[in-house]
Write a structure and sequence with these properties.
The structure is a homotetramer of 229-residue chains.
Chain A: H1 6-34, H2 39-65, H3 71-79, H4 85-109, H5 125-148, H6 153-167, H7 176-181, H8 193-217
């Protein structure tokens, strides 16, 4: 299903994650500027813009790279035997690099300092549980849809993130690459670097646990797809 | 279509209902905290988050358990001869248990008392009619789509609930398990236990009546699907 | 594709139009009550609830009656030779009756006088052009999708109405049965009876003209479907 | 796939672009009038109405003309060898003419001067980068979906524009014909003519560059579709 060599796949991962980071951060800036101080309205615009763009970039890049845009998701594919660990490492680098460039492009668009120091505090057990729930549900949605209704993956991912912006206390980062990108902005969607570290640990753990439990819940005898070459 | 044994199916029902309860209650908390006192904006976020998550969890768990997440819906399947009554009892227990755990997880995420006493009054004939309409339409949407366009069930359920959050005076609980879960929170989506009892009676009656009328409207000679083993 | 006799089809049209009227009026009441005086927020909730419900009721009732819920749409089917004129008359009666009952049910749910006198002024050339545009686009969307992508009719109808709530100065009534239903409410979505008369004339004219022009634009040699029995 | 001769195709392009312009401008007027001074709420309504209508008009006119509604998109089809340059010129004229008529119809609906002088300043490197990103993503979404999931083009285009209304500093014009139409209004979505010139240059350049890079990313050996007759 996936075309082309590793260079094309990594380009797709970097481009897609960059677009996602620019969308998350850029729409957060725009929303806060226009919302007249109403944080709820700003989060509503931010959550709809993010979910909508996820649908689009998974449609665009899915056939090229699988459209992970997320090191925790790539890890889950490795654990399920559908991605080689070496490729997952490259994927993670492309995702993180793309996310950082996306954050910078958002700052270019809104005439801000290109690299900023995030001061937004996001910490505490409640938010960590939120990240665990958000990442676990994201991984569950991806693998369940891939198994039973693969053409629904884009919509499922967009909707689960839009919903969890509201349902989880952490606003559903659920993605180490995007979490890192959000440490170099000091706007609506920012997170302090020291808080980001814990978020990322929780995201990776939740993705791994969900991938491990998935086989039982769906009564799999063996993985249904093979790693791409 | 449905895989695995009863244990897997009950796990799916408990997990899905738990996610739904956490989404309803959690997004209500977040929305009220951020909406700056505007109840309309809070309900808008709450209704969109709920509908979006319904699409996702039906996509995820549908192939495992049928994705009822709702004792009234399971009852309707029994009445149509598509679910054994014994299994419906287990389903209801899993749904209620999952919903309660979901409510507690929402409280964990937002650093609140784990079990609260709901004080939100929701009563009166207008709201009871609302629950009847909302539950009847939910059951109608499920069975009509299962019959003619089964791949549209997730979207139809998500949209009917999002819409009825606004169109019905009760904000469309339409689900005894979620109604029970909402009695142990004292936040935006709460309902007093004494009010919940009436809501649940209305929901069950409306589901049963709708299931009974369905065969005539759709000119069925016999149920089109058999109970799962 | 359509099942059952005329009684079932008329029941479906009445039920669907009743649900639609209750949704339009009910969500308008709820939205205005909660929006804290912000008409834009109220219209946003009203437009999303209406569009979402349209998708649902077309999915539910489409296979039974074609899911017109709208005398202007039934007229367009007659003009294209796909509905018998006698049946269209019965359809219109079912739609108008269902819509009125739906309005009353909305009032029951919100504890209001069952039948009210609308005082909301909606008149002037700008709004009449709006109704012409809105109805023409609705008819165009229905027939184009029926021809090329029939499974997309529900989504197309929901989205065109949600969008035209904002894009047309009249907020896109586009439906004589719903327009009549909205004359017996004095809430957010009301229209004075004297204004409704002009709206309905414009709607019927726009539907007829669009149906007539459709064949040329889509280069039809002959209607592609036959009237249902 | 595309029916009829050039006259039908140009009519479809003009009609579709006119509807799009009327929707963008009309929903902007309505949103600003009702939003009580909250620009964020106005943009939310404007972005949802625009994205929703894009889905509808691509569903309607796609089988007739390809549903470009956008000279930059038509240019990208030329560069990919899928549209004859002569036809692209006619397409652009139909699109620009249709867009201007759509703007005038919006003014008719809202009882405003038919042709206005835009005074809304939209300029600066940040917004130009925004237009480049928005147009590039639009072209990428169209060609990627045409290649792998053509039935998803309508949804992808609607979602990418709704999202980029928020994510790009320019609110994602991404369309020379609509940009021109927005110079003859002095309402929420207006742009000064002198600013429009730069926007259009950026849009055309971004579309051309994206079309050129597309073949590499998707490892195409040759264009997969032929120009329509």
């Amino acid at each position: 299903m996936r075309e082309g060599g590793l260079a094309r796949r990594l380009t797709a991962e970097a481009l897609g994650t960059g677009i996602l980071a620019a969308t998350v951060i850029g729409s957060g800036i725009m929303a806060e500027q226009l919302a007249g101080g109403n944080q709820g309205l700003a989060l509503l615009a931010n959550s709809l813009a993010t979910g909508a763009m996820l649908v689009v970039i998974i449609l665009i890049f899915g056939p090229v790279s699988g459209a992970h845009f997320n090191p925790a998701v790539s890890l889950a594919f490795v654990l399920r035997g559908e991605l080689q660990i070496r490729d997952a490492g490259f994927y993670a680098m492309a995702q993180i690099g793309g996310g950082l460039v996306g954050a910078i492009i958002a700052h270019v668009m809104f005439n801000m300092d290109l690299v900023q120091t995030a001061t937004h505090v996001r910490t505490g057990p409640g938010q960590w549980v939120g990240e665990a729930v958000a990442t676990g549900m994201l991984v569950l949605a991806i693998f369940a849809c891939l198994r039973h209704a693969p053409q629904q993956v884009p919509v499922a991912v967009g909707l689960v993130i839009t919903s969890n912006y509201w349902a989880t206390a952490s606003t559903s980062f659920a993605n180490p690459a995007i979490t890192i990108a959000r440490t170099i902005t000091d706007t609506f969607t920012a997170i302090r670097p020291e808080d980001a570290v814990v978020f990322i640990i929780v995201q990776i753990a939740a993705a791994a646990i969900t991938a491990a439990c998935f086989s039982w819940l769906f009564a799999e005898k063996a993985p249904i797809r093979k790693p791409a070459e």
